[in-house]
Structures are given as structure tokens and as C-alpha cells.
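Quick start: read one record
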Amino acid sequence: MPPRRPAEPDIVRYYTDVYTEADRLHRTPQGRLEFARTTELLARSLPPAPATVLDVGGGPGAYAGWLAAYGYRVRLLDLVPAHAAAARRNHPAVPAGVADARRLPLAGGCADATLLLGPLYHLTDRKDRVAALREAARVTRPGGPVMAAAISRSTQIIDLARQGRVDEVTRAAVLATHATGVNDPRTGFTTAYFHRPEELVAEFAAAGLPAPRLYGVEGPLWPLLDALDVGPAERLFRDAVDCARAVESDPAVLGASCHLLAVAPA
């Protein structure tokens, strides 16, 4: 079997030349739901401002900018140079640079809280995901929260079916991804890994972190928002938020969320 090619060039190319991340969280009702629920969970889990928050894999700075507006001291690091540059343009008060989540160029205990709201999506080897979590724990002061997001294993098959894109060409790749968690970039997304809830918990343990509190971010109604082309229909949006909040920790429906968020003290 030939050695696997490094994923980093594919990820950098995708976010530089193919996909615009900057407005993803505000462009669609689904993105708005993800942002609304993630910021709700951040506000619930982070220490009070002006705590220092390290945003690893923070992209062009949607969450870093939100945190800075609430008085947090934020530093952003991302694998994609274009993302770090966009973050500096959009949020001049937030220092932003390029770094790999598995090897952070920072001293231990330098942050009061650390966010990994993207890196685990794009690390297909378990040892790399554990390394990223271990690094997040290292740079976080003892007792400070480490918060890591993952894309749920069910997301791809639901999302492609919602778009009518599961056909004879993509079906085998979609089923293989559902079996292994490793995405085939031919489905339209870049190199990625999709978690089952129990896997995310086990990876925290392997990194030496306590068992995390696990939340379903969007809840089970997220496919309806775009599938029905409801746009900003506020009643359905509020219902989706309320539903996500009501079942956010129910083990039976965690995997129905598009994203999972795990929180544990360093």
C-alpha cells in the first residue's frame, strides 16, 4: 500500500482556492445555527473576560472577533496562511499567525482556555488528533477549559442526501466515509475526519484529559433549515435552537448534530 500523502497541502489549497470560509457562519440558516449555538456554549463554558483564549484553527476569526468584542484577550493560530491574514484584516486587535495544532509554538500554561474548533476535522489519523488535544492541554493553565469541535459521522450522508448529491458516482465514497470516518475529497469537501461521539470522548482520554462534557451543537433539526429553503424564517430558526438546546446532552441524539463540542478542564 503506497504511503498516504500529507493532508496539509490539500487543506490549504481547499481553503485558499476553492472554498470561502469567511462568511460561512452567516451565509446560510445552517451556518447561523452553528454560530448561535457555539457562541452560547462558549459563553457558558469559558472563564470570564478578560481571560486569555487561544483560538487554534480559528480560520478567518469569526469566533475570535466575537470573543474580543466581549473583552477577551484572544490569540488566533491557523494552518492556512490566507485565514491568518484574513483574521488580521478583519480583527486588527487579535494577534493571528500560522501554526500546526499538533506543534504549537507556545509556552505551557499560556492560555486560560484553548479552543480547537476546526483542527480535529482535518486530522485523519487518531494519533494526530490526540497530539492536537495534548498540545491544547499543554498550553492551557491547569483547570482551564479545552474545547474541541468535531464533525459528526452522520453529517456527510445527511448533507449530501439533502442536496440530492448521493448518486451512483458518490454512493460508494459516502458509504466508505460513514464506515471509516475518513472523507474522500471527491465528494466535494477536503481531507477530513468525521467522529462518532464516543470516539471524541476516547481521544480526550488518550490525550490525558478528563472525560469531557459532550454537546450536540445544532441538534437534530439542522437539515430542515436549508432543505426547505426557508432562509431567515425566524420561527423555524428559533425552534431549531430550542430543540438543540433541549437535547444537547442526550446520548441518543448527540450524533444527529452536524457538529459536536467537547469540553474538559486541562
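The first strand starts at residue 52 and ends at 56.
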